[in-house]
Amino acid sequence: MIEFRGVTKQYPDGTVAVGGVDLVVPPRTTTVLVGTSGSGKTTLLRMINRMVDPTDGAVLIDGTDVATVDPVRLRRSIGYVMQNSGLLPHRTVLDNVMTVPLLKGTRRQTARARAMELLETVGLDASLAQKYPAQLSGGQQQRVGVARGLAADPNILLMDEPFGAVDPLVRQELQQELRRLQRELGKTVVFVTHDIDEAFLLGDQVVLLRTGGRVVQSGEPAEFLASPADDFVSGFVGADRGRRRLRLEEVGGRRVVVDEDGRPAGVLEP
Ligand SMILES: Nc1ncnc2c1ncn2[C@@H]1O[C@H](COP(=O)(O)OP(=O)(O)OP(=O)(O)O)[C@@H](O)[C@H]1O
């Protein structure tokens, strides 16, 4: 379990990136931090592995204040996946995935076998292992990034807009893969996005932030539509837009769910 207790981050120039956040991230579930640009999502995420230290409050992992843990050790025990995959360009895919396990002292043969296994887990063909990142598509690079994040078998996986830079179709594919992976692996995932649809799709818990790094609402995705905390939330989740306003229509004896324009969204189970 990850816990934020009264966490604030004020940068030396006076910017309050995160303002007094209290939040619990339950284990083995996906928590999505969502919000507009500059709402403190990345800062909040990076306080988990001490890439950023809070100026006030504390972040605890399983009851231990991360401030008391050596940052290098901490970072190697937590998976981290970022937007542009962050792969080392002059190293092969295999070497990229093996980096952290080798740094942690895993034997080369073991690390290699595990890396090959992980490439398969994230849906990559073994033949890509000896290629260099630039020889891969954006989507493939992101998959390698996910494999690398999982390589040291961390309990926690931090993902900062990991699918932000790929085209919409590949993005959908990667989102579905992450859902599958999460069902199989049961990691504690903290995922940053500015896309509310992605947040609803992936999050067991969604945390909506606004400028100044304040939590406006948190909870299960459906709660945001059922009872948005205020107008900002309504606007952000699009509760006021046609796409979210669904209604039932009877078609050929079945109950079909349609949107405001009458376009079908699905069929209601009997
Ligand atoms: N090193 C820094 N020094 C000063 N201000 C910073 C620094 N890093 C971030 N900030 C500011 O803190 C605020 C929050 O930044 P952060 O990157 O956490 O937001 P974000 O929600 O992740 O945004 P985005 O979606 O654009 O990545 C912003 O106003 C940003 O300009």
From TrEMBL:
Residue span, ABC transporter domain: 2-237
Nucleotide-binding among keywords: yes
GO molecular function: ATP binding
Statement: the UniProt record of this protein carries the keyword Thylakoid: no
SMART domains: AAA
Record's protein name: ATP-binding cassette domain-containing protein
Tree of life domain: Bacteria
InterPro entries in UniProt: AAA+_ATPase, ABC_osmolyte_uptake_ATP-bind, ABC_transporter-like_ATP-bd, ABC_transporter-like_CS, P-loop_NTPase
Coiled coil: none
Keywords tagged on the record: ATP-binding, Nucleotide-binding
SUPFAM superfamilies noted in UniProt: P-loop containing nucleoside triphosphate hydrolases
